[in-house]
């Protein structure tokens, strides 16, 4: 009966398998962290004039009933972030409403393509409520609401990240 040339104990083989799986998991986590850092860097960039102008038109009020105009605004938002898939990370945009009493804020729901004006005290849907008080302070043009934070955009286009 021939003798094996190389004999690896079973426990060492299992240890190597576990070690390889752990290393792969660590590499995957590191890649996800790099992707998150890249995404955060992209979303911190100042917003363009075209983007600011498009979002200023939300207060006109007529867009609520004109889906083509809503789609144009959403296209402008998507063009601002061509390398980012916003679905799943951006919940919407909240801004102070200048239509007058009884309206307080308006929202743009990115996924549902809906613009809505909300009265004072009327709750905002889908996680957007966390941006109401920031919008109401009047220091920012609008607030982009993400699953993990709010990004307050000033009139110059600069972005401030506010953890939520």
Secondary-structure topology with pairs:
Layout: H1 10-44, H2 49-56, H3 67-80, E1 90-96, E2 103-109, E3 114-119, H4 132-136, E4 142-146, E5 149-153, E6 159-163
Antiparallel strand pairs: 1-2, 1-4, 2-3, 4-5, 5-6
**How many helix segments?**
4
> Stretches where pLDDT falls below 50 for ≥5 residues?
none
The CA-CA distance between the termini, in Å, is: 70 Å
What's the β-strand tally? 6
Total number of distinct structural domains: 1
Strand coverage percent:
15-25%
Element-by-element helix/strand order:
HHHEEEHEEE
Q: Brief overview, please?
A:
The protein is 38% helix and 21% strand. With 164 residues, the chain is α+β, with helices and mostly antiparallel strands.
Would you kindly provide a written description of the structure presented here, covering whatever features stand out?
The chain has one domain. It is 38% helix and 21% strand. The protein has 4 helices and 6 strands, in the order αααβββαβββ. It has helices spanning 10-44, 49-56, 67-80, 132-136, and strands spanning 90-96, 103-109, 114-119, 142-146, 149-153, 159-163. The protein has a 6-stranded antiparallel beta sheet. The longest helix has 35 residues, at 10-44. The N and C termini lie far apart (70 Å). The mean pLDDT is 82.
